[in-house]
Specification:
Strand order of the largest sheet: 2-1-4-5-6-7
Number of helices: 24
Structural class: alpha/beta
Distance between the termini: 26 Å
Number of strands: 15
Strand content: 5-15%
Largest sheet: 6 strands, antiparallel
Shape: flat
Helix content: 55-70%
Radius of gyration: 63 Å
Mean pLDDT: 84
């Protein structure tokens, strides 16, 4: 795991967003984190640990104070709308990952949010989970880093006051860390697999023995071996022979035949008794049948009067209905009259306040002003156009003046450059002519004529002056001067053109200003002739239209009220006509009611009824009358049929004696019980013999298998316990002790650079907690060679720090050879326990390790480290929160 980048906001003492770029700090190899106590130095380490594992870098006991809960790390000075988050980028297994834990505001409350992503080839990030939970990030961090949180704090982070944790850890704790780092789970799994297989075999044999015991005890407590089952089988077979003998003597088939004959005869007598019982029942219901005959007779007589009663009831109902309708109409007449009166009154009030004359007067006044408004838009447009033209001319003038100033400045600069180039060219020409003889002499060759004296021998040629220059140098300077002159002349032409442009722009600006003033004055004069509150032609037309709309609205309202008055008058007339019609209908209904009552009275007299109530009491519905008639017919028919049936049945049974049916059940039960008992017992004996025979064969095989395998299985189990380490050093602990030996060797190599190699770590086979051995440590002191070594727990604070540092470095170095890459080490304090010499030794060790393994971060207040370490991360503590800066 290699840290790359850390970002946090509203976290711990940091109010705002703070970042740490480890890639830049790693350029120096070792970097120092400094700052006042309580400023938040350790919080940087906490942020990395929380981003990966959801817990801080310090004690697990901080859980008691909530410091291992992410929400408790929110800065109490942060703004309410500012979210708390920690983002950590790191490299692991050849990829770059980003872990983020946030405490964000959602509506009225905050909640934790999680994210984990892997960097794509194009630099973007792809999420590792969809809607991840906290446990997803924790598990992924362990998978990628190769360490859980506790192991990470012991190997990668040496927290304040606990840097010796791994050094002094027991064998079990060391085993857990080393197993995770060096991947020795295969040895453990192999040992456990062999143990599980041996235990499974011994358990299977134990179950087999128990199965034999239980199976035999099911047949009897006295049975001890499979051969005892044969005695039971022989006894069962003898019982089967005796059962067959008793069954033949009972002769159940003959007994069943006699019972069947008696049962059939009893059924025939039962039929006779049923007919007699039915006849007796018919006699008992004869009075009810006679009453039904009388009821049917009365109902048929009353039916002749039913239509007169119905006609009288319908006429009475019609009269009541007409009376109620008339009363309802008469009660509603005042409301109709009041509605007609209000409609007439509302129309009169409306026409008395007509605004039409005043509105038409206003329209006339506005129409007279229309010509003044029609020219206003052109004047405004002219004023705006003149103003825009003036702004354009003024801008052009300013641009021309600025261009002139630039041209003047550039011309002066180019003139100065030309003067300087001309001066330099003159200097070069003077030097050239002064040293021309020395130049000619330097180009002479023996045997060639001198251009000055003509001699072909040159024993004493003129010497080349120290400040002489070549002809090419002179020509180059003169060319440069000529180029500078041309540039100056060109810029002078530009300046003259700029002055002309300024004059032209100034004239245009004055003309535009004059035109602007004239247009604005014409607009002001026109606006004084307008109607107050109406600024333009559109507003004038709108005002005229509103007046016309008000006239139209008034006329529309007048029509609505006139129509309403007419409608109410029409409705009142129709309502009164309805009352007269209702009175007529009531009189007609009363006449029909009287006629129906007279017809009913005549019908009652004809049939001899005293009143209507007597008729209604005798009336029956048609379906009821039919049902009564049907029941009477059925009764008479059944009485006749049952009498004939009884005579025939008595003739049929006159020679027979009725059997005692009360004995049938007992006789049948005796036959059935004997048959059932015989069959069940026969089947039981057969099944039991078959079952015991099968059990005998099965138990005999198991008994022989158990005896043949138990000795070998017990031997394998004893070996498996030794292999797992139940009684000493197991296979995995043995492998780990070898790996741990390599770690110790690497640590001792580092310790050779501390205090002249005074200390030397040694692995012992002393027993630790749980009777485990093989991973305990002692330290040898070169100053006391006669002693066998002392416990690492007896080292002083400074000694523990140096030894722990060496052990952590050894762990990292060996781990990288096994696949778990630890490319960073972070140390929180610890240097305060060291003297200056020890600090120098420690820094030498860290320097050599950093070159091979990556970055090292140190938190410390020790002054000497600030002058030794050049990459410094400083945490500033202020009342507004802490801030990180790189020094």
């Amino acid at each position: 795991m290699k840290p790359l980048y850390l970002e946090m906001q509203a976290f711990g003492p940091y109010k705002g967003k703070e970042t740490v770029d480890f890639t830049k700090l790693a350029e120096g190899g070792i970097f120092l984190i400094k700052g006042p106590t309580g400023s938040g130095k350790t919080t940087i380490f906490d942020a990395m640990t929380i981003a990966l594992y959801g817990g801080c870098s310090g004690e697990d006991s901080k859980v008691k104070n909530g410091r291992n809960e992410f929400k408790e790390w929110r800065c109490n000075q942060a703004e309410e709308t500012t979210d708390t988050y920690v983002t950590f980028l790191f490299e692991a297994q050849g990829n770059v990952y980003r872990f983020t834990r946030s405490y964000v505001l959602k509506r009225s409350a905050r909640s934790e949010k999680y994210d984990a992503a892997i960097m794509r080839d194009d630099g973007t990030f792809a999420p590792l989970f969809e809607n991840p939970k906290e446990k997803d990030l924790n598990a992924k961090a362990e998978e990628l880093v190769g360490l859980n949180k506790e192991q990470f704090r012991q190997v990668v982070l040496l927290p304040q006051g606990k840097f010796e944790r791994f050094l002094t850890a027991g064998s079990d704790d060391k085993e857990a860390i080393l197993q995770k780092i060096f991947g020795t789970e295969d040895w453990s799994r192999f040992s456990q697999k062999f143990f599980d297989k041996a235990k499974a075999r011994i358990d299977a044999l134990a179950r087999e023995s128990e199965e034999i015991r239980i199976s035999l005890s099911e047949e009897g407590p006295e049975l001890g071996k499979p051969e005892d089952l044969m005695t039971l089988i022989n006894a069962l077979n003898a019982g089967g022979v005796e059962l067959e003998k008793k069954h033949r003597e009972f002769d159940g088939a003959k007994r069943q035949e006699k019972l069947n004959d008696d049962t059939a005869l009893a059924e025939r007598f039962k039929s006779l008794h049923a007919i007699e019982a039915r006849i007796a029942k018919l006699e008992s219901v004869k009075p009810a049948a006679d009453r039904a005959r009388e009821e049917l007779k009365k109902a048929e007589k009353a039916e002749t009067v039913r239509s007169f009663i119905t006609k009288k009831d319908e006429a009475s109902a019609a009269f009541t209905k007409r009376s109620n309708e008339l009363k309802k109409l008469e009660d509603g007449l005042p409301a109709q009259e009041e509605a007609q009166r209000k409609a007439a009154e509302e129309l009169a009030l409306h026409t008395a306040k007509s605004p039409v004359a005043e509105l038409q007067k206003s329209i006339g006044a506005m129409t007279e002003k229309r010509s003044a408004y029609e020219g206003l838009a052109a004047l405004k447009k002219a004023a705006n156009t003149a103003k825009a033209s003036w702004k354009t001319a003024d801008g052009a003038l300013k641009t021309a003046e600025e261009a002139l100033e630039n041209a003047k400045k550039k011309a002066v600069d180019l003139k100065n450059a030309f003067d300087e180039a001309e001066k330099e060219a003159k200097t070069y020409r003077d030097c050239y002519f002064a040293g021309i003889y020395g130049q000619i002499a330097s180009e002479l060759t023996d045997g060639e004529k001198c251009p000055v004296c003509g001699s072909i021998h040159h024993p004493e040629p003129a010497e080349l002056a120290e400040d002489s220059v070549s002809k090419e140098q002179v020509e180059a300077k003169e060319t440069a001067a000529e180029t500078a002159k041309k540039a100056w002349n060109t810029e002078e032409e530009h300046r003259q053109k700029a002055e002309t442009a300024v004059k032209t722009a100034g004239d245009a600006e004055k003309k535009a200003a004059s035109e602007k003033t004239a247009a604005e004055q014409a607009l002001i004069a026109a606006e004084k002739n307008l109607i107050e509150g109406i600024g333009d032609l559109k507003a004038l037309d709108t005002a005229v239209e509103k007046c016309r709309e008000k006239i139209t609205a008034y006329e529309d309202r007048t029509k609505v009220l006139t129509d309403a008055k007419t409608a109410k008058e029409t409705a009142l007339s129709a309502y009164k006509a309805g009352i007269e019609s209702a009175k007529k209908e009531k009189t007609e209904a009363e006449t029909e009611k009287t006629a129906a009552e007279n017809e009913l009275t005549a019908a009652l007299t004809r049939q001899g009824y005293a009143d209507v109530e007597t008729v209604c009491a005798d009336l029956r519905a048609e379906d009821v009358r039919k049902e009564i008639s049907r029941k009477i017919t059925e009764y008479d028919t059944e009485v006749k049929n049952r009498a004939e049936e009884l005579a025939g049945k008595k003739e049929e049974l006159k020679e027979q004696t009725e059997p005692d049916a009360s004995q049938f059940k007992e006789r049948q039960e005796a036959i059935t019980e004997e048959s059932r008992t015989y069959s069940a017992e026969k089947i039981r004996i057969k099944l039991t013999v078959d079952r015991l025979t099968g059990k005998y064969k099965d138990l005999k095989v198991k008994y022989e298998h158990h005896a043949a395998n138990i000795t070998e299985a017990e031997s394998d189990m004893a070996f498996a316990r030794k292999l797992r380490g139940d009684t000493g050093i197991g296979l995995q602990r043995y492998v780990l002790s070898i790996m741990f030996g390599q770690v110790i060797a690497e640590a001792n190599r580092m310790l050779g650079k501390v205090h002249d190699g005074r200390y030397h770590l040694v692995r012992t086979d002393d027993r630790g907690a749980g009777n485990k051995r093989g991973l305990e440590l002692k330290v040898h002191d070169r100053r006391s060679p006669e002693q066998e070594g002392r416990s690492v727990g007896m080292l002083s604070g400074g000694e523990k720090f140096l030894v722990s540092l060496a052990l952590s470095i050894g762990m990292s170095s060996v781990a990288q050879q096994t696949g778990v890459r630890i490319e960073a080490l972070f140390i929180d304090e610890g240097f305060g326990t060291l003297d200056e010499s020890s600090i120098n030794d420690a820094m030498n060790v860290l320097g050599s390790v950093q070159k091979a393994n990556g970055m090292i971060g140190i938190i410390s207040h020790v002054q000497i480290l600030e002058s030794t370490i050049h990459s410094v991360l400083e945490v500033e503590k202020t009342e507004a929160g802490s801030h990180i800066k790189v020094c």
